[in-house]
Amino acid sequence: MSTIAEAAAILTRGRIVDLSKKVVPGGAQGPPGAPARWYQIGQFVFPPGELMHYIAMESHISTHVEAPSHFLPALHNRPGDDVSEVPVERFFGMAALVDCKDMAAGTQIGPEILKALPIEVGDIVVVGNSPWLATQRPWLNIQGIDYLVDNRKIKMIGLDDTVYVERPEVARKNLAGYYLHDKTLSNGIPVIEQMAHLSDLSKTRFFFMGIPAAMGGLDSFPIRAVAIEPGD
What we know:
By secondary structure, the chain is an alpha/beta fold. The chain folds into two domains: 3-21 and 63-229, Putative cyclase (Glucose Oxidase, domain 1); 25-60, no CATH class. It is 16% helix and 27% strand. It has helices at residues 3-13, 72-76, 111-114, 142-151, 179-185; strands at residues 15-18, 39-46, 50-57, 64-66, 92-99, 108-109, 124-128, 139-140, 156-160, 191-195, 205-209, 220-222, 226-229. Helix 4 (142-151) packs parallel to helix 5 (179-185). It starts with a helix and ends with a strand.
């Protein structure tokens, strides 16, 4: 079945699963173990009386997608697309789940694991749902990342908080060692962090949407991450 036909069939009779965290003013979440991130709102009245809000926030709050401009200027001293410049088709399409619920603590997710999953060329890949927290979380190793980018030609990757985004020895310590960010964003592949509710998924393959507002100049922006699973 073609990707278009597969997606159309799912959208017609699919089950919707919200994979997003709710963003609460004063309590927006950052990475596991990090303080809450900045998100404040202020209400004002716009004539003739309707209500509107001022918003002050960081770009990486709760479930968010990161564009190449998040990383390439900092590490490689070259420009990268912001969230408004990434082609919108990158943010939706058929997706495959790398379900980590049965993985041992500290599992390195490499090609031998990924090749056993129904990840097709051009898929979005979602990784998470492990039972582990803190230093026991699984993580994609360098070979696994290379397989997804070079062999499967993925269009986007998303991860929840039960897996490391970067391997433990460099996470939040050494930007030059951030291989997942470097390999994906250098190839125009957006990265979603802080996905949620992956345990609510009942299928390994589904249609996925995680589209940010077209915010010019921003390296990242929150999304509403939604899976639509095929009906039985």
